[in-house]
Amino acid sequence: MIGYVTLGTKDLARGAKFYDAIAAEMGVGRMMEMERFIAWGKPGGGAGIGLTYPFDGQPASVGNGVMVALAARDRAQVDRLHALALSLGGKDEGAPGDRGGGFYAAYFRDLDGNKLNAFVMG
Fold first, then answer.
1. What is the DSSP letter of 85?
2. 4-54+66-121 maps to CATH 3.90.1640.10
3. In which band, very low, low, confident or very high, does the pLDDT at 29 lie, cut at 50, 70 and 90?
4. Which among 62, 51, 46, 57 is positioned nearest to 15, based on CA atoms?
5. Which of 28, 71, 81, 99 fits a disulfide with 118 by CB distance 3.0 to 4.6 angstroms?
6. DSSP helix/strand/coil, 109
7. For the residues 61-75, what does the mean pLDDT come to?
8. For the whole model, what pTM was predicted?
Protein backbone atom coordinates (compact mmCIF):
# COMPACT_ATOMS: atom_id res chain seq x y z
CA MET A 1 0.00 0.00 0.00
CA ILE A 2 2.79 2.48 0.77
CA GLY A 3 4.48 3.84 -2.35
CA TYR A 4 7.33 5.67 -0.63
CA VAL A 5 8.27 7.54 2.54
CA THR A 6 10.17 10.81 2.84
CA LEU A 7 12.17 12.03 5.81
CA GLY A 8 13.34 15.56 6.44
CA THR A 9 16.98 16.52 6.71
CA LYS A 10 19.07 19.50 7.71
CA ASP A 11 22.02 18.39 5.54
CA LEU A 12 21.21 16.41 2.39
CA ALA A 13 24.81 15.56 1.46
CA ARG A 14 25.58 14.26 4.96
CA GLY A 15 22.35 12.27 5.15
CA ALA A 16 22.85 10.86 1.65
CA LYS A 17 26.05 9.08 2.74
CA PHE A 18 24.08 7.35 5.53
CA TYR A 19 21.27 6.23 3.20
CA ASP A 20 23.63 5.27 0.36
CA ALA A 21 25.20 2.70 2.71
CA ILE A 22 21.87 1.46 4.12
CA ALA A 23 20.40 1.15 0.60
CA ALA A 24 23.48 -0.70 -0.67
CA GLU A 25 23.14 -3.27 2.12
CA MET A 26 19.52 -3.75 1.03
CA GLY A 27 20.51 -4.20 -2.61
CA VAL A 28 19.17 -0.93 -4.01
CA GLY A 29 20.59 2.47 -4.89
CA ARG A 30 19.52 5.97 -5.71
CA MET A 31 16.59 6.06 -8.12
CA MET A 32 15.89 9.79 -8.18
CA GLU A 33 18.01 12.80 -7.32
CA MET A 34 17.36 16.53 -7.40
CA GLU A 35 18.93 19.52 -5.74
CA ARG A 36 16.72 19.24 -2.64
CA PHE A 37 15.73 15.54 -2.67
CA ILE A 38 17.21 12.05 -3.08
CA ALA A 39 15.22 8.80 -3.26
CA TRP A 40 16.48 5.24 -2.84
CA GLY A 41 14.71 2.12 -4.01
CA LYS A 42 14.01 0.10 -7.10
CA PRO A 43 11.50 1.26 -9.72
CA GLY A 44 8.67 -1.25 -9.69
CA GLY A 45 9.92 -2.68 -6.38
CA GLY A 46 8.74 -2.18 -2.83
CA ALA A 47 8.34 1.16 -1.15
CA GLY A 48 11.33 3.48 -1.41
CA ILE A 49 12.66 6.09 0.97
CA GLY A 50 13.44 9.71 0.23
CA LEU A 51 15.47 12.30 2.08
CA THR A 52 14.51 15.92 1.51
CA TYR A 53 14.79 19.46 2.68
CA PRO A 54 11.26 20.38 3.79
CA PHE A 55 9.27 21.95 0.96
CA ASP A 56 7.93 24.73 3.20
CA GLY A 57 11.45 25.98 3.98
CA GLN A 58 11.02 25.41 7.71
CA PRO A 59 13.60 23.37 9.66
CA ALA A 60 13.32 19.59 9.41
CA SER A 61 11.97 17.96 12.55
CA VAL A 62 11.39 14.41 13.80
CA GLY A 63 7.83 13.19 14.29
CA ASN A 64 7.16 11.67 17.71
CA GLY A 65 5.83 8.16 17.09
CA VAL A 66 6.90 8.16 13.43
CA MET A 67 9.15 5.32 12.28
CA VAL A 68 10.16 3.80 8.96
CA ALA A 69 10.45 0.00 8.95
CA LEU A 70 12.91 -1.61 6.53
CA ALA A 71 12.07 -5.19 5.51
CA ALA A 72 15.27 -7.24 5.80
CA ARG A 73 15.97 -10.56 4.06
CA ASP A 74 16.90 -12.39 7.26
CA ARG A 75 18.06 -11.94 10.85
CA ALA A 76 21.68 -11.56 9.76
CA GLN A 77 20.74 -8.58 7.59
CA VAL A 78 18.83 -7.02 10.51
CA ASP A 79 22.03 -7.33 12.55
CA ARG A 80 24.16 -5.87 9.72
CA LEU A 81 21.81 -2.92 9.12
CA HIS A 82 21.80 -2.03 12.82
CA ALA A 83 25.60 -2.24 13.06
CA LEU A 84 26.00 -0.29 9.82
CA ALA A 85 23.68 2.50 10.98
CA LEU A 86 25.63 2.87 14.23
CA SER A 87 28.98 2.82 12.40
CA LEU A 88 27.72 5.70 10.21
CA GLY A 89 26.85 7.84 13.24
CA GLY A 90 23.26 6.68 13.79
CA LYS A 91 21.94 6.28 17.33
CA ASP A 92 20.87 2.98 18.89
CA GLU A 93 17.18 2.72 19.77
CA GLY A 94 17.11 -1.04 20.44
CA ALA A 95 19.62 -3.79 19.71
CA PRO A 96 18.69 -6.63 17.35
CA GLY A 97 16.54 -9.26 19.00
CA ASP A 98 13.34 -11.26 19.08
CA ARG A 99 10.39 -9.04 19.96
CA GLY A 100 7.92 -11.94 20.18
CA GLY A 101 5.65 -13.67 17.71
CA GLY A 102 8.49 -14.35 15.28
CA PHE A 103 9.23 -10.62 14.92
CA TYR A 104 13.00 -9.98 14.93
CA ALA A 105 13.97 -6.31 14.81
CA ALA A 106 16.56 -3.64 15.56
CA TYR A 107 15.90 0.07 16.00
CA PHE A 108 18.07 3.09 15.22
CA ARG A 109 17.97 6.79 14.33
CA ASP A 110 19.57 8.43 11.32
CA LEU A 111 21.83 11.48 11.49
CA ASP A 112 18.84 13.85 11.71
CA GLY A 113 17.13 11.81 14.44
CA ASN A 114 14.55 10.07 12.23
CA LYS A 115 13.65 6.67 13.69
CA LEU A 116 14.02 3.50 11.61
CA ASN A 117 13.96 -0.19 12.22
CA ALA A 118 15.09 -3.23 10.31
CA PHE A 119 12.89 -6.30 10.77
CA VAL A 120 12.09 -9.78 9.58
CA MET A 121 9.16 -12.04 10.40
CA GLY A 122 9.75 -15.68 11.22
1. H
2. no
3. very high
4. 51
5. 81
6. strand
7. 94
8. 0.92
